[in-house]
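Translate sequence into structure tokens.
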Amino acid sequence: MILINPVAYLDSYPLQSELRALGLQLSTTAKDKTSATSNGSQLGQPGLKKIAASLKSFTSYGATPAGLVKALNSRMRTADLPYTVSQAGGPVGDPAFFFKARLVSWSPLQGSIGDAVATDVQLEPSSSDIALGQIVIADAARTASFNSAVVNLGAVAAGQKLYGVVHVVAASGTTPTLDITIKSATLVGFGTPTTRVTVPQFTGVGSFWIELPGPVTDGFWRIDCVIGGTTPSFQFLAALGIDS
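Result follows.
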């Protein structure tokens, strides 16, 4: 796989316009379990899972859209920022990793004389777990109510969770509103869906983390979006996934 057009979102900020490299590492801390019966070999078992995300970006100070420096600086001491990354441009069905993050560190000013000013960003989870899901609503501006396509995520077993994330990166109009519900059904035709999650109403930019414990026996899922107001427009992306 060639990394050509990745996308990344932190809270309500889309990072891809300045993005030049990204990384995501999952690991476990090794715990020694060497015993007298290990025949002289050092043995270990996995401990806690560790998740670390990084990205390299060019630095921007602009106001439209809000510059990267301003976006990161205002979120430096904020936990549980929804973070989403997808490697192939964010179309519907594209795999996506997402978790609730905090900024570990960032360097707002890097580079030699004559270089484009760059920054490095380090993120780690502040709560919950990382989810591997898929893009259900691609990043685009929308002015009218609509439903996503039905996706076959499968059932959520007892002990599992449905995870999801919404990133609203732009909003305009007079008193615009965006209401989102996550629904499931037993059949792909979605004849009798059940509302599983009601997302708090958006009236501007922002983000929301979705976490629904199982069991849910339905296997088909959809995101319904109701847009209201006078000449409203919302640009946003949404993803869903079930932990393994």
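Note: DSSP finds one helix and 13 strands in the chain.
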